[in-house]
Amino acid sequence: MKTKERLSKEELLKQIQNSDGNLRISSVSLTEEGEEVIALAKHLELEGKIVLLEYCLDKKPLAVSLKTKNPD
Known about the structure:
Structural class: alpha+beta
């Protein structure tokens, strides 16, 4: 994940598609950045591009975990 530039929905979708359904992004440096990643994932779900099964914002170390699957 980019730390100085915001991660775009397209970049997040590409990372999700290249993962096995379990994606951990540990390069977030602020809680707000982690919350933005989760919001992007929720938008992708609303657009029907992914199914967001689970998400977690870990505090120590700061990271975002997403569990997803492809829509049917």
